[in-house]
């Protein structure tokens, strides 16, 4: 037992000795961290809550230290530096240092962090705060920063050019829900390592620079919710690694380039609510095999819905609302799109009957066909209508009607408010894939009418003959 206690004691002192050998954070970085914490939220006694002399031994959540070695073969670190800083509570499960309403920040502080790889601010600047990473003060981490994340800092007023003019090693640039303004600078293409650009919900204007096509590693490009105008560059079609392209809610005009068919890895495409012209639905949206969601709503592109959808069987959502579409809804959409869960075709000029094939879909849970010129009976069974409920939207089609059995569908359905089909108008197909498309009573009624027609025909032939 005495021998065991001796070894435990020896290991304990060895651990203490190893800890003592670890380098301490420089006083400049340490003081800058505490100054930054106090500026963001002065209600906490930060120097009391965390060790002043050795901050990296137990730093606040969101502050990450890394040890650096002078050479590959070194066993003892040469120095320690702050490499990540995250501020702002995202949820109850996040322990990041919270920001206050009157948070402030001095860009001079950033000159202390030469090894910073990630910086994150969430809802930290909501007062009259101006934050700039340049403004005459070059951030020390300009060449080391890999992730810049600024989310919902509504009072963050800074030009996009000054924000990104100095970073050359970025992989992720997420600046969303701020008051960042100006034109996207050409120099952003110098950050050749960029994999994500999300500049949504800001005040950006001007055109999208064609030089973005140089970002060969880019997987996400989200510029939605700004004031971008002009044409979209054809060269964006060269970003063959792109998984998500979102340019929605801007003022972009002209034609959607067919070069985008080269984006064969694209899974999400949203060009909705722009000013694209009357050139029809781009053909490439039915030719990108990995595409899962496509939204073009709010652009008066006109034309008809494509007939061929077999190459995009994995599509789960289609948003084609308010596009001036004409013609009929092709049944091929229901036949080939076996993963479709959302179909939005409202606010167009579509006509004809509803394809009954949609009623056999196991994945559809929302269909919006409001405000078109559709006619005839609703060809879906009561179980299908009950499953979708109020998400089956058919208002604004005055020539649509329902059978008696659909009038009683519950689950919030609007079918009970639609007009009842007249018996004499029931002339739809009775079978589809071996299933009845109307009630057995209607089938007998129609069969009786056919018998009467046949009998009259026979009598007419006899009269003519004799």
TrEMBL record:
Q: Where's it mainly located?
A: membrane
Keywords noted in UniProt: ATP-binding, Cell membrane, Kinase, Leucine-rich repeat, Membrane, Nucleotide-binding, Repeat, Serine/threonine-protein kinase, Signal, Transferase
Keyword match Lyase: no
Q: Which Gene3D superfamilies match?
A: Ribonuclease Inhibitor
- What are the recorded GO MF terms, alphabetically? ATP binding; protein kinase activity; protein serine/threonine kinase activity
Q: Does the keyword Transport apply?
A: no
Gene Ontology cellular component list: apical plasma membrane
Signal peptide positions (record): 1-19
The record's section on InterPro entries has: Leu-rich_rpt, LRR_dom_sf, Ser_Thr_Kinases_DiverseReg
EC number(s) for this protein?
A: 2.7.11.1
Q: Where in the cell is it found?
A: Cell membrane
Tell me the superkingdom of the source.
Answer: Eukaryota
Which reaction is the catalytic activity of this chain? L-threonyl-[protein] + ATP = O-phospho-L-threonyl-[protein] + ADP + H(+); L-seryl-[protein] + ATP = O-phospho-L-seryl-[protein] + ADP + H(+)
- Top enzyme class of this protein? transferase
Q: Which GO terms describe its biological process?
A: pollen tube growth
Record's protein name? non-specific serine/threonine protein kinase
Q: State the organism of origin.
A: Cucumis sativus
Q: Which lineage ranks, top first, belong to the organism behind this chain?
A: Eukaryota, Viridiplantae, Streptophyta, Embryophyta, Tracheophyta
């Amino acid at each position: 037992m005495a021998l065991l206690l001796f070894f435990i004691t020896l290991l304990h002192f060895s651990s203490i000795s190893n800890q003592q050998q670890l380098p301490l954070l420089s006083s400049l970085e340490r003081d800058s961290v505490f100054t930054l914490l106090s500026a963001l939220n002065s209600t906490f006694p930060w120097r009391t809550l965390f060790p002043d002399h050795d901050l990296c031994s137990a730093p606040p959540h969101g502050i990450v230290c890394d040890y650096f070695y002078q050479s590959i073969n070194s066993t003892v670190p040469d120095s320690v530096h702050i490499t990540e800083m995250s501020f702002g509570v995202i949820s109850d499960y996040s322990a990041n240092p919270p920001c206050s309403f009157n948070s402030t920040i001095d860009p001079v502080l950033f000159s202390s962090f030469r090894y910073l790889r990630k910086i994150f601010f969430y809802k930290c600047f909501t007062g009259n705060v101006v934050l700039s990473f340049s403004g005459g003060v070059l951030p020390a981490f300009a060449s080391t920063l890999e992730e810049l994340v600024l989310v919902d800092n509504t009072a963050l007023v800074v030009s996009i050019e000054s924000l990104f003019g100095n970073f050359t090693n970025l992989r992720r640039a997420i600046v969303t829900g701020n008051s960042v303004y100006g034109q996207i600078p050409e120099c952003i293409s110098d950050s050749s390592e960029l994999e994500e650009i999300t500049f949504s919900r800001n005040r950006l204007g001007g055109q999208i620079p064609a030089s973005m096509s140089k970002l060969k590693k880019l997987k996400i490009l989200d510029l939605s919710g700004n004031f971008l105008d002009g044409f979209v560059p054809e060269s964006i079609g060269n970003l063959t690694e792109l998984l998500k392209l979102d340019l929605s809610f801007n003022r972009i005009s002209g034609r959607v380039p067919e070069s985008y068919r080269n984006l064969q890895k694209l899974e999400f495409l949203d060009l909705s609510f722009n000013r694209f012209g009357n050139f029809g639905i781009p053909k490439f949206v039915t030719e990108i095999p990995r595409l899962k969601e496509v939204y073009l709503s709010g652009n008066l592109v006109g034309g008809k819905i494509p007939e061929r959808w077999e190459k995009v069987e994995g599509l789960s959502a289609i948003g084609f609302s308010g596009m001036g579409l004409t013609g009929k809804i092709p049944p091929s959409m229901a036949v080939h799109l076996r993963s479709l869960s959302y179909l939005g075709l409202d606010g167009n000029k579509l006509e004809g009957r509803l394809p009954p094939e949609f009623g056999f879909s196991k994945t559809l849970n929302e269909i919006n066909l409001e405000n078109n010129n559709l006619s005839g009976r609703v060809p879906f069974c009561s179980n299908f209508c009950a499953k979708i409920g109020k998400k089956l939207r058919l208002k604004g089609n005055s020539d649509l009607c329902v059978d008696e059995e659909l009038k009683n569908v519950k689950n919030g359905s609007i079918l009970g408010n639609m007009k009842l089909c007249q018996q004499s108008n029931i002339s739809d197909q009775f079978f589809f894939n071996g299933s009845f498309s109307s009630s057995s009573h209607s089938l007998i009624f129609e069969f009786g009418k056919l018998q009467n027609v046949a009998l009259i025909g026979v009598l007419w032939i006899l009269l003519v003959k004799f």
